[in-house]
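Could you help me review a protein record that somebody else here produced? My question to you is simply how this chain folds and whether the tokens agree. Thanks in advance; the entry in question is below:
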Amino acid sequence: MSTIAATVPPSRRRQRRRIALSSYLYLVPALILVVGVVHIGIVANVAYSTLDWNGISPDSTPVGGANYAKLINDPIFWTSLRNTFLFAVATIALQMALGFSLAVLVRTRAVLRGLLRALAFVPVVLAPAVVATSFRFLLTPDGSINQLLSTVTGQDIHQAWLADPNTALGAIILINVWQYTGYSFLIYDAAMGQIDHSVIEAARIDGASTGQLLRHVVAPLLSGSHLVLIVLGMISALKTFDLVYLTTAGGPGTATQVLTGYIYRQVIGQFHAGYGAALSVVLVAIALVFSVLQVRLSSREAR
């Protein structure tokens, strides 16, 4: 190797070094964005969480860990955290179940596969603002949803789905499921396409029914897809803001308040920037746990 390296002209070696250096320069914009905006922003947010600050005035008062002590004793924080996790668990479970069912339907139908795939994925590409605004009108007491239910049941229904504390969170969950089930379907559909047909044929020869085939053969082979959807779904739920804000704004009361909405309310609505920063640190810490979990699961699947 040393003999070969010695035979390379110095000009050629300098040219190679320049090419390598220019390749690294392409990474500079991404590094500036990630380090300069994300990482430094997180560090600054941790610093702000130790201040009593309104976010506007140049004056602030250091309070140490007082914001975190306040957070522990804040019932609205615990309500928003509970709502966030309820939203996450319900949406993940329903989206996975419906996405898996749609993928099976598409894979077993001989006709209209392309149309079914398109129809299932169309809601995913819609802007959340459009979806939230549309369903806000559909779910009013005189909206189309109540009219449809009245026609089907034969009863006069005027339920205020988004204004009732007993139904508001459930309504938002179903809106999210309607919009993003297509994403779960896309993951499952792609994963099912990678299953070796000989495995399915062997199970059929052994006498497995359709239910047994799906439960004992197909579902275990999609374990990687299950894990990815769970982790990504949890991270997505932690970031949910626009849907809740544009439908109920966290109400009625705190029935649909989620963690991101409570942060917005503290920082923008009440000018408690220091306390809002402490809430943000908690949100980042939870998201970090699931991000690390996603990386580890991805590494395990790659082995």
The chain has two domains: 2-48, 75-302.
